[in-house]
Structures are given as structure tokens and as C-alpha cells.
Amino acid sequence: MDMLRGRLINKIDDILAQIVSQETPLNSQLQIEANLVLPQDSTGLTRRVVLDSIDIDDLRHQVASHSGSPLTGTPYHAQHAFNMSHGLPSPMNTITSESTPYPPVEHTMLDAPHPAPANTLLSSQPVLPDTGSNANNFYPILPAEVEQTPPTTPPVGGGRQVEGDDRTFPKRRKQDNANSHKMEQSTIDKLIEGIWEQIHNPKSLAMGDDLKETMQWVLEKMSGQTSRFATTNLEFSNATKCCRQITTSSRTARAFEVIVQAHWIDCYNARLAALREDRAELRPQEHKKIVLTEACTSFSWSEKELRNRMAIWKGYREIKDAAGWSALIFAGPGIYRFCKYRLGFDEDAMNKLRSLKLRAEVAADTLQPQWRQLLSLVGESTQIHWRGHPHDWAVSKKKGEDPVPLAVTYKKWDPNFTYQNLEDSVIDTDQWGETDPRRFEGGPEHYCKSCSLRQSSIAEENECECFPNLYSPNPRTPTPVQVFRTDNGKNNGLIACCAFERGQAVGEFVGKLTKGLADVDVMQSQAGDHEPYQIWQGRCGNFTRFMNHSCASNCQFQTFSWLGVQRIVVVSKGVQAGKELTVDYSGRYWDNLDKVCLCGEPCCRYKDRRKLASV
Ligand SMILES: C[S@@+](CC[C@H](N)C(=O)[O-])C[C@H]1O[C@@H](n2cnc3c(N)ncnc32)[C@H](O)[C@@H]1O
């Protein structure tokens, strides 16, 4: 029954999502029927059973009033629990095919305090029309489907400079019909994205507390409560902490469960193989029967019950064999459904999982190394394999290809390459002393220049939610991105492990705050009418340093002010999980740069540089 119910729910959910996104006349009804087809040797009749009828307008109204609609890409199943009984939805500088990334050109400090903006990366500048520096030169970001090739920025100064745009950043998509024909993510893609989310969530695996300790802790927290339900602020906060604690411990327990169950399948197979050798006189079916009986006795389950569970556990083992232990451990509750119904459990899915294996291990080892301790339960090595910062490794999208230490990927240009990962920009005190060149003048109160709401580092006082994943009083969680080896001559690039919704911040362009650099890649910016500054990422910064240029980029640089300090934010224009994250470096970057663009887009503006130079 469970399986039937699951299949029906999925089917009906999909139909409902389609209907809601289509035009239907007012007062349309969706009638749900089933046909009971009796065998020919019986009556030969088909009996129609009307199960229920749904008012489409009501349905559409409910979906629209819901905070996340299926049209925004949130899994429909997660939003509406369909009640079956009631029927209503409750690199560079040479013209070659291979570019050199961040060439080991010695950077020169210019004497002039306001250096010529040579070779600067300009954020979002390419989307500006060629009409000078007037603030009204607004080139709007259109929805992805209708976005046009932006006009080329005229040559200004040198090249290799990027800038942040202080106008608009991509807004979250309206819940209109623009997405109505969007394909739903496949089950495997949902599972994979779930794995990435869990790996990048520092709270997903708590180690060391056993259940008894957790219960004791919960009881202590609850002891002073005035009623069974938390009513005061403190009581509610305690209840929330208890709930979080239990949820985290049960997630850990769940990880224990899946690895032990997957391992048990290997034990079962080993026992079967041993029996085949010891009792060669028996037929294969008899060997199987003996082992099943042994297992049923120990589990105290019927054979049917055991077989049902084994079917799911075999799924866990298949996932472990394809994607490795780390993916299995971080898969989360979605894995049960995936294995139970084996929806999309095909060769294509298995190949996706195989190419995920080493990438997931790097992320798990560097972000949540305690995951390895769980492996002692199944006799596997608990040795951490990939050490350091997650972005100290350049991973491969191809299955079986080992991640490479970042420094190795720059060896041919710079044998001594090092990169220091920074959370926040650092001030080049030789240039700026202790003064942050990004700071605007102002009082203790800060209001967002974009949404006009109050910004504060105190949770209760902050109202600005422009980029909550970067700027909010809550601690930041690691961004689900990886540095990867590109296969078209661009050396490294940045890959999105999870989707980034349009308008969502991917990360802040973080590096050394300096000035006067020439002939190296820099971000050029200016806070108000203060002296311009540069952000240099040559040897220190964050993952934004690895974003390649595309003439049809899926992200853009934007200036944003948080607590009176200007930031350069990489904002998504809508990026799917598994895609390379790209920005448009702009004409100013490419000017005088003897490299060709390898973005491969039909609208590429910098692919034929030889031709340009001869004009
Ligand atoms: C900010 S770095 C990006 C990361 C770089 N690919 C790496 O491996 O370090 C910029 C350099 O990457 C390379 N690059 C980025 N986008 C490119 C493109 N579309 N075509 C060719 N090379 C590109 C160029 O060498 C460029 O100077």
C-alpha cells in the first residue's frame, strides 16, 4: 500500500503542478477517477470509480498564497502534503587555446596615488550601455529566458580590471508564469543536492553525545518550565534548543543506521559466499534460504519483512558503492524514499553518483572531518584523506579523477604558488594604514542603501534581508561551491554544488584591500567620493577568485553596503546545481589582454582577438 500511495502522490503532485501553471477557464474542476479493469474471463467490464473532484481556482489560489510556489523551483512535494483521503493539497595573455590563470606577472606598485585602472576586473560593467558614466545608464537584468547580449563596453584605460555595479542586483524571480514550463529536478538531482546541503551544514552531524546524555540535557532545560508548553521567551528558546539538539542527534543516529544497514548487505553476501563453499552440494536457492532464515531468526522478522528492508538497504549499498560512504552518510532522509521506490535509480543516476564520490569526500573531510569516525563501525579506515581548506583542492567533474592540490594546478606558471583562504578582506596597511578604504562616513545607525531597512549586528534589531546568507547577525555557513578543473583550457573554475536562486548572493569578493596595482587582475572600486581602492586576490582571498569569465555569465558583481562598509558581492542570476559559476569581466578587463575568451558562448565578444587587433 505504501508503494502505491507513494506512486500516486508523486503522480498527482506532478499533475497538480502542471495544472496550476496552465491557463484554465474559471470554475474548472479536476476530477480524479480510477478505472478498475477486470480480467476478460470475468465480466470483461471496466468499472469507473470517481475518487474526488478538485476546484482548480481554489487550488491555484492555495499555491499562489503559499510562500514558495512550485513555480519557483521548490520541490512541490515539500510544500503540499497531498491528503489522499480528502483529495485537496493540504588563465593568460597569449593567443593560444590554453589560457594561463592569474599569470605569475610581478605586480608593480605605481607611485601615483590614483593609478590608471589597467587590467581591472569590472563587476557588472559589461551590462552597461556605451553612454558614458551617467548614473542613468541602467541596463536592466532581464529574466534569464529573455536576457540579451549586453553591449560591449568601450576601451577605457588598460585591461584586467573589474568593478562592482552599485545599481540594481538581480531580484528574486516573481511568482509568475515565467517558470511554468520549467522542468522539475529529477529524483537523483534532488538527492545529490541534499547531500551537498548536508555536507555544507556544520550542524548536520553532531558527534559524542549519546542518547541518554541528550535526554538528560533536554530534561534539565525543560525543568523550570511553568507549563507543558513553552510560553515565555526563555522557555520557548529552551524548547527550540532542545528540539534542535534532538534533531541533530537523530540525524547522526540516522547516518549510523544507513551505514550499518549498507554494511549488513555486504555481510549477508559474504555469509552467502561462505556457505556456497562449505555446502557445495546444495542448490543456490537453498543457500539463500538458509542465510535468510538465519537473519530472520536474529532480527525476529518475517521473511517478507526482511526482504522488504533488504531491498532498501541494497539501495543504500549501491549508493555507497557508487558515491562512497561520505555521500551515504550525508544523504539525509531523502535517501530512504529514493531507495524504497527506486525512482530514477538507473545507470545515468549511478554515473552521476560515481562522479560525485571524490568531490563529496573532499568536502566532507575538509568541512566535517568527524564523519570518518562513523566508519569505525563498519571496519573501514577512519583516516582523513583530504586535509586543509575545502578550496585547497581542485576537484574533477570526471568520475575517478583525483582531486589535485591547488598549488599543483599553478605549478607551470608559478612553482611556488600559495593561496591563503580569507573569510574577510584584509587591509594592506602599507597603503592604507589602519583605515578601511571601503568605509562610508556615518553615525552608529546603518540603513541599507538597497532596501532602506535598518542593518544591525544584533539579530533583534536587524531588518535588512538583502543577502541574509552573507550579511546577517547569524553566523555564515560555508558556501556550497568547489574549485574544479575545467576541460577547455581555462585551468580552474568554480562549480555550484547546490542551486543559487536568482538574486541570491554567492559570496563576497574578498582579498587584500590595496591601491596602485597595475598589470595584475584586480577589482577596482570606490566608496562614495573616497579615494578608489583595489581588491587583489593574487595570493589571498576566497573562492570568488576562481570564477571564470563568460560572455553569457550566470552571476554578476554588485556593490552593496553592510554596516557602513562597501562590499563587492557576486550575485546569482539563477544558477543550477552542477553548473560552472561565471561572471562577465567586462571589456575593461579584456582590453590590451592578448588572450582569447574560451567561454564558448555564441554571443562571445572576445573569442577572435587576432582579428580585433588587426582592425
Ligand atoms: C580570476 S581568474 C579565474 C580563475 C582561473 N581560471 C584560474 O585557474 O585561476 C582569471 C583568469 O582565468 C582565465 N579565464 C577566465 N575566464 C576565461 C575565459 N572565458 N576564457 C579564457 N580564459 C579565461 C584567464 O586566464 C583569466 O586571466
From TrEMBL:
Residues forming coiled coils: none
InterPro entries, sorted: Class_V-like_SAM-MTase, SET_dom, SET_dom_sf
Originating species: Knufia obscura
Positions with biased composition (Basic and acidic residues): 162-184
PROSITE patterns with a match to the protein in the record: SET (PS50280)
One Pfam entry name: SET
Domain SET: 479-586
Region (Disordered): 146-185
Protein name per UniProt: SET domain-containing protein
